[in-house]
């Protein structure tokens, strides 16, 4: 009866989305009003995040039965959202009853799991792990249509979408699935890492890949503190999270200051939602480098944070959510015609040149592989040597664009962004659609 009543109230008060390009001189203002329900804030933020929009400011209010949120957003060029297709998409999605809808630009790729087999991997991180996993999938004739891998606090997790190399659909043969499971588990176990290593096939349905990675990492307790070096303490890159009581209003107040970066708001809201907290009020502001967020929260049962142990856990989990995508790694972006074994070859070359992959985003679109790798030197804490990039260039060859994005703390050559043409290696075999992290 409660569910039916909630549906009736929603039909009587459908979501309203207003998109305004006039009231702010430097941002598009998106206002969302709706009947309140648990998780609605995450749904809204997820849509904007999947479109790669930059949220400069946000104001949240959801006391009582009504939810209202205001975002000031820009695109990655720093401009207002002028594309009518994007504007119409945002309104259509946020005013609909559907929770999971395909991303407009395909960057996340929410599609029916009938089209692919979704594989989740988790284990202890080690150099060369991705290279070993991608080699196994290649040997098993699996095409990786997209994937993402995160590493944090010595834990590595990946969500991989694969298809059968012969049918280009999901792998359905039970014996073959069992073989995939067995071999990948053996790779993840490494040096008898039986407790951490896990490989599962996701249940049918729709899944948001990046949210699922947060859930996997959380389940593996990657938020538990590891030893922090003096260099990390002095770098100023560590997030500052506080959790305090607001006794007069019976809220818990969470404040965060950290380096700003793409999808920061999504990562925070995703973690609070999955920890079963509700944001009643909040404000988000970003400067040139730093982001400030403040939330008034309660548990879904209406209670604030009630113990010092719970307070500490909230702080740890939010710090982990911020850090999972934060890295001083060097960004390498590869764009080339896709083929079976491409990812295996690329990750092998990285490993042979002593590069450790800290995070990766793999995608295939129209027969073209578009991969991002965030790499560090596995033999030292020093920035990647430009000579290493030159070595990779020589090994890979021609006809593939590799863009190298150096951070200010790294030591680039004369240019901050370089493009190389690669190719001899890529032309060895026929091009198909395989990928992996």
From TrEMBL:
<dbReference type="Pfam" id="PF01842">
    <property type="entry name" value="ACT"/>
</dbReference>
<dbReference type="Pfam" id="PF24931">
    <property type="entry name" value="ACT_ACR9_3rd"/>
</dbReference>
<dbReference type="InterPro" id="IPR045865">
    <property type="entry name" value="ACT-like_dom_sf"/>
</dbReference>
<dbReference type="GO" id="GO:0016597">
    <property type="term" value="F:amino acid binding"/>
</dbReference>
<feature type="domain" description="ACT">
    <location>
        <begin position="29"/>
        <end position="106"/>
    </location>
</feature>
<comment type="function">
    <text>Binds amino acids.</text>
</comment>
<feature type="domain" description="ACT">
    <location>
        <begin position="118"/>
        <end position="199"/>
    </location>
</feature>
<keyword id="KW-0677">Repeat</keyword>
<dbReference type="InterPro" id="IPR002912">
    <property type="entry name" value="ACT_dom"/>
</dbReference>
<dbReference type="InterPro" id="IPR040217">
    <property type="entry name" value="ACR1-12"/>
</dbReference>
<feature type="domain" description="ACT">
    <location>
        <begin position="331"/>
        <end position="409"/>
    </location>
</feature>
<protein>
    <recommendedName>
        <fullName>ACT domain-containing protein ACR</fullName>
    </recommendedName>
</protein>
């Amino acid at each position: 009866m409660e569910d039916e009543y909630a549906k009736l109230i929603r039909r009587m008060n459908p979501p309203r989305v207003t998109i305004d390009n006039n009231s702010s001189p430097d941002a598009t203002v998106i206002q969302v009003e709706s009947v309140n329900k648990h998780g609605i804030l995450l749904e809204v933020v997820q849509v904007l995040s999947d479109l790669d929009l930059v949220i400069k400011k946000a104001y949240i209010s959801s006391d009582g039965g009504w939810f209202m949120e205001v975002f000031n957003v820009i695109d990655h060029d720093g401009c207002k959202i002028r594309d009518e297709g994007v504007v119409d998409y945002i309104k259509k999605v946020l005013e609909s009853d559907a929770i999971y809808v395909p991303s407009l630009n395909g960057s996340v790729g929410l599609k029916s799991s009938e089209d692919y087999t979704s594989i989740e991997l988790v284990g202890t991180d080690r150099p060369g792990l991705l290279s070993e996993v991608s080699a196994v999938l290649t040997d098993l004739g699996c095409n990786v249509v997209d994937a993402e891998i995160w590493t944090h606090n010595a834990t590595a997790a990946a969500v991989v979408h694969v298809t059968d190399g012969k049918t280009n659909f999901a792998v359905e043969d039970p014996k073959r699935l069992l073989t995939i499971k067995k071999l990948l588990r053996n790779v993840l176990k490494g040096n008898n890492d039986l407790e951490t290593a896990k490989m599962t096939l996701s249940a049918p349905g729709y899944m948001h890949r990046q949210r699922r990675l947060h859930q996997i990492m959380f389940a593996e307790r990657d938020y538990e503190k590891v030893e922090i070096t003096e260099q990390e303490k002095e770098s100023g890159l560590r997030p500052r999270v506080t959790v305090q009581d607001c006794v007069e209003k019976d809220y818990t107040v969470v404040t965060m200051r950290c380096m700003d970066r793409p999808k920061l708001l999504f990562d925070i809201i995703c973690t609070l939602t999955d920890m079963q907290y509700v944001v009643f009020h909040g404000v988000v502001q970003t400067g040139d480098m730093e982001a400030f967020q403040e939330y008034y929260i309660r548990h879904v049962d209406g209670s604030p944070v009630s113990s010092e142990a719970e307070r500490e856990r909230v702080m740890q989990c939010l710090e982990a959510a911020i850090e999972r995508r934060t890295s001083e790694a060097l960004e390498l972006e590869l764009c080339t015609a896709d083929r079976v074994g491409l990812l295996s070859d690329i990750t092998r070359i990285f490993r042979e040149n002593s590069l450790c992959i800290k995070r990766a985003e793999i995608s295939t679109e129209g027969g073209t592989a578009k991969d991002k790798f965030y790499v560090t030197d596995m033999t030292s804490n020093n920035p990647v040597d430009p000579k290493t990039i030159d070595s990779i260039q020589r090994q890979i060859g021609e006809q593939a664009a590799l863009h190298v994005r150096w951070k200010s703390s790294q030591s680039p050559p004369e240019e901050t962004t370089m493009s190389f043409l690669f190719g001899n290696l890529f032309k060895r075999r026929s091009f198909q659609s395989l990928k992996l992290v």
